[in-house]
Write the structure tokens for this entry.
Amino acid sequence: MPKPTKTKPNDQPLIGAHVSAQGGAFTAFERAEQLSIKTFQLFVKNNRQWFAKAPLTQEEIKLFKLRREQWGGGPIVAHACYLINLATNTSAIRTTSEASYKEELLRADSLGVDYLVFHPGGHTDSGAEAAIKNVIASLDRIHRETPKVRTKSIVEITAGQGSSVGCTFEQLAAIIHGVAHRKRMGVCLDTCHLLAAGYDLRTKEAWKKTFDSFEKIVGFDQLVCMHTNDSKKGLGSRDDRHAGLGEGELGLEAFRLLMNDPRFKKIPKILETPKDEKMTEDFINLDILRKLEGKSRVSPEIKNSWKKGKLKLGVE
């Protein structure tokens, strides 16, 4: 098993990864500890099924909370089922999506998970404005039916594939500001999705322009999570295909800028990059992020670090 770079607990940047919950939600902490991360993302049920096969037991909930206390980390993020489509005009799909999302929200809340990230979905021919109104109406119904839930609903920016909505800062703002219970909402950005949607992050100037725009239209007070992924496709491709850091069209400079921008210091930065069952690529990508922190530029060593076999970067 690869070994992470050792850092003092107080010096650790708030970086993490999406980890498996196979064997029970509590097992996510074992993987987080192996990676030496203080934030992570997980699924609270099978992400490719509408509903869980069985409700969480009180024993499962108790064990998850005990392991979290032992772990001593920061925010925990759950990601909702990929089937959910709150934007659709097809009533049967939307009704099922609402029920599925509500179930996941309740499961996440019972475990004490901080945030539940979801993709708003897409329309067929109704248009973006109608789709966004559907998302808002669905969230309002779900929130009314779950008044005691503390887990926040986090809308993720999309790559803009097909008819999906949520691929612009304006659309994210429309959803956030349209929902009745705004304090229950937040935003998740994804570096791959941003590039695919047409927001450039590859240079200092482009980075400033993009996030000055985000601050003006959405606001950093709404940002709670950052998915940290390179992109297999280029700027404005509208194609959601994640890649390992430095292996895609973003390049390492975007991640150096991320790790050194004080606005993101307390924001969980979570990998959703391809990996094997041993999490080998997670160890490598986390080490890259740690090495990029505090760097004024991307050194030749870091620039080549993603090329497996050339540099170990603390991985054995």
